[in-house]
Design a protein that fits this description.
With 217 residues, the protein is α/β, with parallel strands linked by helices. Helices cover 29% and strands 24% of the residues. The protein folds into two domains: 2-47, no CATH class; 57-215, Dihydrofolate Reductase, subunit A. The protein is built from seven helices and eleven strands. It starts with a helix and ends with a strand. The structure holds NADP nicotinamide-adenine-dinucleotide phosphate.
Length: 217
């Protein structure tokens, strides 16, 4: 009996040691060489982990009261300052959009940006853009060093918002009663308002303001 208990204790210790060895990630020579210049910049917990760095992913949207964002395939307002804001933030970055949003663009592709169009149609052609078969595939097509932007529409926002770290929201002070596309407005359990722009208005008197929301840890 004593011999059996002793043997099982040795077995348990060996198993624990094996688990510890597999849990601690030790870079091989190639990885160590590759990481040589960056290792000291990374927190130990990241360097010593097999988990890849979580990439920044941004969403950008203009939403009216209640989260209305579209009607009949179009955006139900025209705010030129918001278009400039959109261009300034997304310029030089990949933009990920659903096929309907792509088709709604007056000028395709959006210049100066990698345009990635999400569609289930295998043979869909979008000259000047790259095609992805799912929102996840589209995100995976961007390297962690690229700050990709989700630019709509409704289905793509809903599918990708759980992965987004920052949300650029233009609040439009309009009631769009016949809207057919919606954005899930941020709730304060999940998001923190990090920047709130001052209220502004178009020459026609449509109120709007720019907000930046960051996902809570
Ligand atoms: N206010 C804003 O900031 C804003 C921004 C963007 C868009 N919008 C508006 O939103 C409306 C368009 O939005 P929407 O929701 O109708 O369409 P959308 O999200 O732009 O595109 C929908 C299409 O994307 C593809 N898709 C969606 N989920 C997918 C998945 N999980 N896997 C593979 N493909 C997927 C499908 O394409 P296939 O059918 O080809 O398979 C689907 O028909 C328009 O009115 C537009 O003006 C507003």
């Amino acid at each position: 009996m004593i011999i059996f208990a002793f043997a099982s204790e040795i077995g348990a210790k060996a198993k624990l040691k094996k688990n510890m060895e597999t849990a601690i990630y030790v870079p091989n020579d190639h990885e160590a060489l590759r990481d040589k210049d960056h290792a000291e910049l990374r927190p130990f917990s990241l360097y010593n982990s097999t988990e890849s760095r979580r990439a920044e992913l941004h969403a950008i949207v203009a939403a009216a009261r209640g989260g209305a964002i579209g009607r009949g395939g179009e955006i139900p307002w025209h705010i030129s300052e918001d278009l400039k804001h959109f261009k300034a933030l997304t310029q030089g970055h990949p933009v990920i959009m659903g096929r309907a949003t792509w088709e709604s663009l007056p000028k395709r592709p959006l210049p100066g940006r990698r345009n990635i169009v999400v569609t289930r149609q295998r043979d869909y052609e979008a000259p000047g853009a790259e095609i992805a078969g799912s929102p996840e595939e589209a995100i995976g097509m961007c390297s962690p060093d690229e700050q990709a932007f989700i630019i709509g529409g409704g289905g793509i926002y809903r599918a990708t918002l759980p992965y987004c770290t920052t949300l650029h929201l233009t609040r439009v002070e309009l009631d769009v009663e016949d809207a057919d596309t919606w954005f899930p407005l941020p709730d304060e359990e999940e998001w923190t308002l990090s920047e709130a722009g001052r209220p502004q208005a178009t020459p026609e008197g449509v109120g709007y303001k720019f907000e930046t929301w960051r996902r809570k840890k």
